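ok new one. same drill as before - structure tokens go in, u give me an amino acid for every spot. 374 of them this time. try not to just spam alanines like last time pls lmao
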């Protein structure tokens, strides 16, 4: 077994995003000293000054083991064994003497973890094997935690013991408090399954994005889906009871068209009269174009004098990795439109792209509205 006496953090990400995460950490957190990496997995040494610093957020980190946000986690060290079947027992020997001290930076010196997260960084999707190992590792938790261990995501404020299996015989152990949506799931992987009538992967993107954003979209919310075809994003909105305008010159899936709360505006967004969107409060979009074109479209809509947009949720395509360096500029541009809450993250079901969520809070319409919620 090998253990770290210094404080480290570890981060996991999509395999193809490993270089992007390295560049981001180097640019945004130069005080962290790079320590170790494998595809999808990085560790950094924490200076004492950073251990109590304010929240640091990463766009490309999917999960980790001390969360400053939902992406960074305190690393307790790593364990290695001669064979995979030895690892759970080595885990028990490793973790028991370290757990009380590990929780002190989290402000809970006497607390026990509420859950164990076990995953493989390169492919964090849950499997029967990872579920079985998770259950076995939970047996090594203190009794109070083990008794409360049902296979349910932990709640905000609870503590998770992390186990990232970089290889079958190399496990990195950490701990994090649950501070946001993605930190509730092992490896930050949201286990969504597309419904039987799901029309496209866009359903996965926007279902996850709506949960992550926390937008109060519900029955009667008036939404527009820009670049809607074949309708996956619209389906995620319709399932919440929203009224949706789907903008796209292409055909929509029949199951979407049959929904009485859906209206297909067939054409390109630049060809449609803005009065069609007067009641719209929420905009989503997944357009296969360069980020600045996407931003131009949403800026034109949000700045129209007769439109009152409350929130935005859309993808930004990173066709070239160099575009990731422009994300702070993209965020600043959206803030300049009057959205005071803006966040960006590469979600579980994003590919070469990130999701941006923007909200005006509190939302104050220019004129009173009656009837259904907006």
């Amino acid at each position: 077994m090998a253990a770290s006496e210094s404080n480290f953090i570890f981060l996991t990400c999509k395999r193809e995003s490993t270089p992007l995460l390295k560049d981001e950490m180097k640019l945004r957190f130069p005080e962290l000293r790079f320590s170790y990496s494998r595809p999808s997995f990085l560790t950094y040494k924490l200076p004492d000054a950073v251990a109590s610093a304010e929240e640091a957020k990463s766009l490309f980190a999917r999960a980790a083991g001390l969360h400053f946000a939902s992406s960074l986690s305190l690393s307790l060290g790593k364990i290695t064994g001669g064979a995979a079947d030895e690892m759970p027992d080595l885990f028990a020997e490793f973790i028991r003497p370290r757990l009380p001290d590990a929780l002190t930076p989290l402000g809970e010196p006497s607390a026990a973890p509420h859950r164990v997260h076990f995953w493989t960084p390169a492919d964090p999707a849950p499997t029967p094997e990872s579920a079985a190992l998770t259950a076995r590792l939970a047996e090594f938790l203190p009794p109070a935690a083990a008794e409360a261990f049902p296979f349910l995501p932990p709640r905000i404020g609870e503590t998770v013991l992390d186990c990232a299996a970089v290889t079958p015989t190399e496990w990195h152990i950490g701990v994090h408090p649950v501070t946001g949506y993605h930190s509730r799931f092992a490896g930050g992987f949201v286990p969504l399954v597309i419904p039987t009538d799901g029309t496209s992967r866009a359903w996965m993107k926007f279902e996850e994005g709506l949960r992550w954003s926390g937008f109060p979209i519900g029955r009667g919310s008036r939404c527009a889906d820009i670049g809607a075809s074949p309708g996956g994003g619209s389906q995620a909105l319709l399932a919440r009871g929203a009224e949706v305008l789907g903008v796209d010159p292409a055909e929509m899936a029949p199951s979407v068209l049959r929904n009485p709360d859906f209206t297909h505006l067939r054409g390109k967004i630049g060809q449609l009269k803005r009065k069609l969107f007067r009641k719209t409060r929420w905009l989503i979009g997944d357009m296969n174009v360069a980020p600045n074109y996407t931003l131009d479209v949403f800026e034109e809509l949000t700045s129209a004098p007769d439109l009152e947009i409350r929130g935005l949720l859309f993808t930004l395509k990173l066709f070239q990795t160099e575009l990731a360096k422009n994300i702070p500029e993209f965020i600043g541009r959206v803030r300049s439109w009057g959205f005071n809450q803006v966040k960006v993250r590469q979600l579980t079901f994003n590919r070469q792209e990130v999701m941006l969520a923007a909200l005006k809070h509190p939302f104050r319409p220019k004129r009173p509205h009656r009837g259904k919620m907006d």
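The two ends are 57 Å apart (CA to CA). and btw The mean pLDDT is 84.
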